[in-house]
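Researcher: We're teaching a course module on how sequence relates to structure. For the next exercise, students receive a sequence and then see the predicted structure as tokens, so they can try to spot secondary structure elements on their own. Here is the exercise chain.
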Amino acid sequence: MATIKPFGAMRFTGKAGDMAQLVCPPYDIISDEERRAYLAANSYNIIRLELPREGAEPYAAAGATLRGWLDEGLLACDAKDAVYIYEEEFDVFGQTKRLKGLVCRVGLEPFENGVVLPHEETLSKAKTDRFNLMCATGCNFSSIYSLYFDEDATIASRVEALSAGKPDVSFTTAADGIRHSVWIVTDPAEVEALKKAFGDKKLYIADGHHRYETALNYQKHLRETGVNTQPDHPANDVMMTLVSVSHPGLVVFPTHRVVRGLDGFDAGRLLDACARYFDVESCGKEEAQEKLDAAAGAGRKAFALYAGGAMSLLTLRDQSVMEGMLPSYSDAYRALDVSVLHTLVLERLLGIDKENMANQKNLTYTRDAGEAITAVDAGDADCAFLINPTRVDEIAAVAGAGEKMPQKSTYFYPKLITGHIMNKIL
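Model: And here is the predicted structure for the students to work with:
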């Protein structure tokens, strides 16, 4: 099962400046304007390495920059191997929550081995980008976010005990007000106990599918070129942050669907077609989320359709229809709200096939319901579907069945910060 390992993380030194100005969110949610703002605040921000844009060959430039920062002492690897406990303290839904996980190296396993399991489809373009960056820098700058089951709380209680004191690193990022804390665990006995505790665990990737597949490709590349010939080579591992599926700080946001550019789109005709499978109920914009919450609480499959200036709640009438539509899929996959939406409405009624979705030709995504509604009102979109978030137990069930959910089925909040703990491979 899962093999976790301590490592000497590469981290910024005090010479680089304030840690809060050296980190950034994951590269794939940062706009060009935000990237410039991070670098304006501190030119050593990790975004220069994680999302290189400088020069004719930005990946090579990132590699040269990394080597320069190491030579200048702006970055350094910890002298002792350790595992790192990382906590994010944040406000959401009017509450203050804390999410705590274990940062370590994890032995790479092909998905077919059933040890590390994906839950979403990936895009080739993103994997090519991450592979080129890894080849140029030999680093994991950001951590893969994975979940594990800890029914008896053995791991959770140990992690809590190890992080009971003052953190070794603590800072607050100004853009979102999230407090980040890190505890460094070097005690060999404690590390060994954690390794043993994970010995029977499977890991479910929550965020970072592209990076995990890239790590597998990088491992293969180094083996084929003769660089990685030993079982203990660092390229046989990848950096992960491991969080219990029962952690009270876990938050999953919905990712709403926005449909645009369909020839001859007609809201009334779509509602009439939906009535074949769904109970259709008109509701106000302000009622939509309340009704979605109620449907989820009752175990019903529902989403809201906004089109033609009107909001409608669509509630699946008969779950068994999904068995006929997706006979080769598991019950867990067929029961997902997003599977119902994609299969019955987007594909069957609107003709948006999987390739179209992957290329985001007629379908885009947002976690902001207001943004989705505004796009329709402004005439920039034909319609929008507001959905409930996918539950963590549903994610694990689909992954455990060896299946992958449609892209953008989940949005774990908050994202893990990039740049506070890094894994230097070569």
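Model: If you want an answer key for the exercise: Residues 255-388 form a domain with the Conserved hypothetical protein from pyrococcus furiosus pfu- 392566-001, domain 2 fold (CATH 3.30.1760). The longest strand covers residues 95-107.
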